[in-house]
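> forwarded from #structure-qc
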């Protein structure tokens, strides 16, 4: 009985060997039929397979799977899909442009850029970026020395034009935003950055807005500001140099929040607002553009600019 079991076991083993060796026998038969070139081709294929296996193990970044074709693509880095693009405001993105024909000379200073109008002796606009670091840096004291802008070409205001007129020499880019640099502070008192303002506007709600902008700079790391008078024909003038007295002032502010630009606008009459709240004066930037003839944040992609300027997203603006 034992011999039968052994014989049966040997038969099974020999059967398995025949099944496995049949493929090998067929392969050698095929190689004999194809001759030496078949053998060379076979050996070359084996060598290529071993080389690819070696490279994949030692250099895993050399191959990536192209799922669209189902093949390995050598020499191509792994895909970078899934990474989020971080939005950043373009450099100088706060600088606007006129959409109406108006005289201007664009002058760049340490802390701001001004579009000066020598016809009216005031600015069309003043624009600048204010960072949280600049707000925290309070090393420089206020200058209080109002002088003509030495870079202005043509007619300009002088400090005496404001004397005994009842109007303040109101800053567009405030001195309080320039305490990070002695030069920036000094240049903030150039008369190209100054407009005739009602004293209670300048010292009241306008000042509150300047202070609020600094708070927003701390909250959002940076704010992008464009501000100025609304220039229109027929404005009254003051002083020997006939400096125009604006009837309205505007300010627009941009920030980056939730990886996109967000904006807010203000428009003030040149008057005393008494106890009016800043929040009640908020308007979309689009509304400011219609009044001023100025295109704000025009360097942004069109869809982002339209979204930023057409609405007020209150959750980003704490008052």
């Amino acid at each position: 009985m034992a011999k039968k079991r052994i014989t049966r076991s040997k038969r099974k083993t020999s059967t398995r060997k025949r099944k496995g060796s049949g493929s090998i026998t067929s392969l050698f038969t095929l190689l004999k039929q194809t001759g030496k070139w078949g053998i060379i081709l076979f050996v070359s294929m084996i060598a290529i397979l071993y080389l690819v296996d070696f490279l994949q193990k030692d250099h895993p970044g050399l191959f990536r799977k192209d799922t669209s074709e189902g093949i390995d693509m050598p020499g191509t880095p792994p895909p970078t899909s899934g990474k989020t693009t971080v939005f950043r405001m373009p450099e100088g993105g706060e600088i606007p442009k006129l959409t109406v024909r108006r005289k201007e000379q664009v002058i760049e200073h340490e802390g701001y850029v001004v579009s000066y109008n020598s016809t009216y002796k005031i600015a069309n606009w003043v624009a600048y970026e204010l960072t949280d670091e600049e707000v925290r840096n309070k090393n420089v004291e206020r200058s209080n020395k109002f002088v003509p802008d030495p870079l202005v070409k043509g007619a300009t205001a002088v400090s005496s034009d404001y004397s005994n007129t009842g109007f303040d020499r109101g800053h567009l880019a405030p001195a309080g935003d320039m305490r990070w640099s002695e030069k920036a502070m000094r240049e903030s008192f150039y008369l190209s950055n100054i407009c005739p303002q009602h004293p209670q506007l300048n010292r009241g709600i306008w000042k509150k807005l300047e202070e609020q902008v600094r708070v927003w700079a701390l909250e959002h790391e940076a704010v992008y500001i464009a501000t100025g008078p609304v220039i229109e024909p027929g404005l009254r003038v003051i002083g020997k140099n006939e400096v125009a007295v604006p009837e309205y002032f505007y300010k627009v502010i941009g920030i980056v929040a939730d990886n996109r630009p967000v904006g807010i606008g203000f428009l003030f009459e040149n008057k005393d607002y008494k106890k009016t709240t800043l929040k009640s004066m908020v308007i979309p930037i689009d509304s400011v553009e219609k009044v001023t003839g100025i295109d704000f944040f025009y360097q942004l992609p069109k869809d982002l600019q339209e979204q930023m300027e057409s609405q007020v997203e209150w959750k980003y603006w704490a008052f």
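QC bot note: Confidence is low (pLDDT under 50) at residues 1-21, 61-78. The radius of gyration is 38 Å.
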